[in-house]
């Protein structure tokens, strides 16, 4: 068993682009290790240069294949690309099922590409809990563009729009995505609409439908400095990717150089703040529930008290001696270094 390397010692190694250090820091962030929080705070203050692209869409729209083709195109421009692929969780191990990495196997040996699969582990909204920590770590590691591919989302799982500078919504012919967009708000969150699988004969119909919906919503658009383009691509033939990369480049200029871009960055910061606070509250609550919930549940079973007063008591217990308890949790665990 090798020595546990403190997270603070991994920061400079990650900044030099050392893949093992990047991987360990992401693993510790994903595990929610309190010992790593000081290092993550340092990383956050040093990050902020990368262009974060969120890519989402319904299952079956070809997101992973599109990410692989887009990454290959970005690499021809000399950009280092980090990919955080949010996968469904295994019901047995809790880990990512890794379907995305299988589809991106052609990129694995490229030193300018880093792919990390991340399990949702019950998180809603299409993102995993540590997704944005992983983005910061890759940003520090020198990756110019970071693509977050969400788990296949439905009608209201649109957190990616609050976590990325540029949101790409992927549709495909024959999936009914135009109806989903009307019902879901997927139309509104897109900075760029992509219709994949445009080598199919029915693709033009989907392109026309989405353009018509965008025209109907133009009067109420909250993006006066940007007109959302609709780009048809085919990962099979390679058609459309020049237009897609040009649209991404143009939107990067909007995201980093306009008033609406500044407002978007403020919204991202607020989302990050609230999600981090929510995670900390959940951790405190879980620790208190382990010791206090059984006795409170017994009182509830006997109907000695009502659920609201007992729930308030459990919440109050979450903050009792919280700081001292959390200091204990900052001690590094006794794990093998090759795991963490």
TrEMBL record:
UniProt keyword terms in alphabetical order: Chaperone, GTP-binding, Hydrolase, Nucleotide-binding
GTP-binding in keyword set: yes
InterPro entries: AAA+_ATPase, GTPase/Isobutyryl-CoA_mutase, GTPase_ArgK, P-loop_NTPase, SRP54_GTPase_dom
Listed GO biological process terms: SRP-dependent cotranslational protein targeting to membrane
SMART domains linked: AAA, SRP54
Gene Ontology annotations for the cellular component aspect, listed alphabetically: plasma membrane
Ranges of compositional bias, category Basic and acidic residues: 322-340
A Pfam cross-reference name: MeaB
Membrane topology: Peripheral membrane protein
Annotated region (Disordered), positions in chain: 321-340
Any one GO MF annotation of this record: GTPase activity
Principal location listed in the UniProt entry: membrane
Locations listed in the record: Cell inner membrane
Domain AAA+ ATPase positions: 49-199
Family: Belongs to the SIMIBI class G3E GTPase family. ArgK/MeaB subfamily.
Protein name: GTPase
């Amino acid at each position: 068993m090798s020595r546990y390397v403190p997270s603070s010692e991994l920061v400079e190694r990650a900044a030099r682009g050392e893949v093992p250090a990047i991987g360990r820091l992401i693993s510790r962030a994903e595990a929610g290790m309190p010992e790593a929080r000081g290092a993550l705070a340092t990383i956050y203050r040093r990050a902020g240069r990368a262009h974060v692209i969120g890519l989402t869409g319904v299952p079956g729209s070809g997101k992973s294949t599109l990410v692989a083709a887009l990454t290959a195109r970005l690499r021809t421009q000399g950009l280092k690309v980090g990919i955080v692929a949010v996968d469904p969780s295994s019901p047995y191990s809790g880990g990512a099922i890794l379907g995305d990495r299988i589809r991106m196997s052609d990129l694995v040996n490229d030193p300018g590409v880093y792919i990390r699969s991340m399990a949702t582990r019950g998180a809603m909204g299409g993102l995993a809990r540590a997704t944005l920590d992983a983005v910061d770590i890759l940003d520090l590691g020198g990756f110019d563009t970071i693509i977050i591919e969400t788990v296949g989302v439905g009608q209201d799982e649109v957190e990616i729009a609050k976590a990325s500078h540029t949101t790409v919504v992927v549709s495909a012919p024959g999936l009914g995505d135009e109806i989903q967009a009307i019902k879901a708000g997927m139309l509104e969150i897109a900075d760029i609409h992509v219709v994949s699988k445009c080598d199919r004969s029915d693709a033009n119909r989907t392109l026309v439908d989405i353009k018509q919906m965008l025209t109907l919503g133009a009067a109420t658009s909250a993006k006066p400095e940007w007109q959302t383009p609709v780009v048809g691509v085919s990962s099979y033939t390679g058609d459309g990717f020049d237009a897609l990369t040009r649209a991404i480049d143009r939107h990067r200029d909007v995201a980093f150089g306009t008033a609406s871009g500044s407002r978007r960055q403020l919204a991202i910061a607020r989302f990050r703040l609230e999600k981090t606070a929510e995670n900390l509250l959940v951790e405190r609550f879980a620790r208190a529930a382990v010791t206090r919930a059984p006795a409170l549940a017994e009182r509830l079973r006997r109907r000695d008290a009502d659920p609201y007063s007992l729930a308030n008591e459990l919440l109050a217990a979450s903050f009792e001696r919280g700081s001292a308890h959390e200091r204990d949790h900052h001690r590094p665990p006794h794990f093998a270094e090759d795991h963490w």
